[in-house]
## 1
Amino acid sequence: MAMNSMMDSAAEAGVNEAAALSAAACMFRSLGDPTRLAILRHLALGEHKVVELTAHLGLAQSTVSAHLACLRDCGLVTSRPQGRASMWSLATGAELLDVLAAAERLLATTGDAVALCPAYGEEASR
């Protein structure tokens, strides 16, 4: 239903439907990595430096920085300088949290189906 309303709104605004679908797919791909989701979840608690994220996630600084760059390029996070470091935060907190909450509700409804999906499930990524 929400995708239909998104497409209806796009059509009313004169937006190309194919472009709107492509943009939506790109956004979902940006959310399709467990590390990026973990970063977003942690940033939902408030601003953090890269060093804090690396300690929390147990990942290399270069890995966290690369994921933050992806999320920044997608417009999902932003940073501000603080001394020699940068403080990272959610760029669109309320909207992003709404999407993640909707995803959690959908996962609760579908159960293990997505994890077992032969095309996108856990076995497909191995």
Note: Residues 6 and 68 are 27 Å apart (CA to CA).
## 2
Amino acid sequence: MGLKRKKNAGSPEVASIRNDYVRSVERQEKRQQAHKVRLFRRLSVFGVLVLLATIWIGTTIYAQSQSMAEKEAQRAETLAALEEVEKEQAQLEEQIMLLNDDDYIAKLARKEYFLSDEGEIIFTTPNEDHKNEEDEVKEE
């Protein structure tokens, strides 16, 4: 058992006892301190991993929401185009039905090609477009 003297600035010399108990208590304190340091390091690493995982999950969710928004916009455009095509198809089907009607074809031929029925006389009247063209020619 040895005595070790410590000097403090404000007090006289104090002797500390260096026996087995004191040494075992000091070792125990050092182990506890080392344990606290290791625990702090492990918690720090775990915290960093959790932070990285959170960032990764957040960016993935953001990218997926952007992708979903783009696909929804594309879907809306496609539905609008489909609606347009369906309208055009309905018009074309109606035109097909009309072209299968002989009376409609006769009216169309009379109108477009100036054909006449028996006993009809065809008179042509000038159109507005035709009048405008004549006015332009006169002005030149």
Note: Residues 105 and 111 are 10 Å apart (CA to CA).
## 3
Amino acid sequence: MSSPCDPKYAPAGDVGTALMVIDSRLKAVYDHKTDTDPEQQQMIDQFAASLGPTGVDALLDGVCTLIYMLMKWLRTACEDHDKDVIEYSVPALVATMRMMPRTFRPEVIPTMAGLLVAAGTGLSPNLWRAQYGRWTEAEMNPLEATAVLLAEHINRIADDHDFATRLITDALSSTDQG
């Protein structure tokens, strides 16, 4: 039986812009910057403001698509080693979220964990989240940070700081060619 949260029903959103934002955050992490460059943050804020409501929704969908794609890769990698992706990844990511109280207020952690579990079980994270209403302002930074943490988790597994970005870029390139 098909689920209403099946990824085939989900809008992909603006995956390219979402990837640009996530990759920028990863580079800051790897450059050991603890705070976002104020100029870069201003540029991102101006860009987000220029998107309008439809563009913001597309960006949110794009971030959820990234989470889905990364969890799909992680699920495949875990299955190749007889591991469960939820058991292997979600507790570590949630523990990291709990160590970041300025980014992840306690009340958003269950939602972010739910996105990971939804994606890890083959459901669309954005359609899963839509069941509970519109995104809240309090969920914006945690959503972005969840995608960054997930990408960084994959990069650590691959022992390559650019692996997750390349994974998505290659997937996007192959769909453009097909």
Note: The chain has one domain: 12-177.
## 4
Amino acid sequence: MKKQTSKILKDLLKYILPVALSAWLCYYLYTKIDIATMKAAINDCDYKWIGVALVISVFSHIFRAMRWSIQLDALNIHTPLPPLVWSIFGTYAINLLAPRLGEVWRTGYIAKRQNAQFTTVFGSMVCDRLADTVTVLLLTLFTFCIAREAFMAFGHKYPETYQGIVNMLHSPWIWTAGVVAVALIVWLFVSRTDNKWVLKVRDAVRNLWNGFAVVGTMPHKGRWLLLTVAIWGCYFTQLYVAFFAFSFTTHLGIVCALVAFVLSSISMGIPSNGGLGPWHLAIIFALGIYGVDINQGGAFAMIVWGAQTCLLVLLGIYAFVSIAMDKRQKTVR
């Protein structure tokens, strides 16, 4: 009974909470928007620029698969590029249903296809995501230097959010939990024990670390860094290109696009279905700093996010069909 209750609570946190958060944020945002004004802004859209942005988006996924291939090759998990591309397409499609579930799925898919340790592949995926986190931090620092006024405006407009971030960074509980976690990991590897559960956890942590740490010893580090720049260059360019689709954003310039890009990237850390809600809020706020009213900002966010979501669904369908055909061909052989 306790296990069943625990499972229900986990499912609620994993699936229901992100959906509820996304729905509440969308309701909060779009009840403050004049629908007639937003429709006029949508009709103003030049959709060829949205199409260009979507093409760039596809290349970002391909570059991500190429970067992951370098890490997996260093672990002697030699995977053809097409299955890696399918795994990335499928990841983002699944994340529309449940945040972070796509990463677990792509790890399981590649591990099973290549007959590799799940924890090792998972470690390489964690490293892949950590590289994204570091990139966002660097972009945030750079953007703060060239557009400090925009971030200060964010702090003044949302003082509770700003203070919450500061309090979290100064929380003794977070630092204590970090120290305890490190101490526990050290104990796992230092202690001498025959306990099978401890040994299993130790092996899992070792495999996870091997997949994570391979980036420090792998060949082709330069190509890996270049692909990281290419991935995030595509992410930024696709948003910047979308600025040319609307008369009220085409003149805003690259700094505004960078502010919107950084704030929207940070918002993706909030658990939601494909950024639904937090991403819209970040974009509307960023455009508002540069004089775009909430109705026009809402139209921009709705079209850009909606087009991207439709693309992810189509790429996901393509990926799952390709994976099914690949399994069938392997079975026949």
Note: The chain is about 80% helix and 0% strand.
